[in-house]
Amino acid sequence: MRALLQRVLEAKVVVNGEITGEIQQGILVFLGLAKDDTFEKGKKLIDKILKYRFFDDEQGKMGWNVDQAGGGLLLVSQFTLMAHTQKGLRPDFGPAMPPQEAEALYEKLVTYTKTQFEQVQTGVFAADMKVHLVNDGPVTFNLEVA
After folding, report:
1. Where is this motif: Gly-cisPro motif, important for rejection of L-amino acids (predicted)?
2. pLDDT level of residue 145 (50, 70, 90 thresholds)
């Protein structure tokens, strides 16, 4: 399981011309699920994301998490994060979880996230999403859990 986190001033997801999720300051999370990922792994990753300190505190250091910064969370499924890219010139998506399983796990993780944090928005699983963002910094981190 892999999450690409971007600290944003604003972000939104548009599907078929309609906004499906939108936040102001906060974290845009692209979430990739691998074949062997589980709900327990996902909970561990979500907990880490919510506690991860990469917002500036009163001393201007990365000391605050998203809640302390008063931000939101925009969670977007992205199977391409699981691609093997070490060989050749075309990504290998073999490691990604099959769509039906991934959608069920993603939805379960969205539900869990909403029980842990109030300001959660999402994209639409497997949709052709247009993601708009203003990266703050830029600050981007790649998180994984074992």
Report:
1. 137-138
2. confident
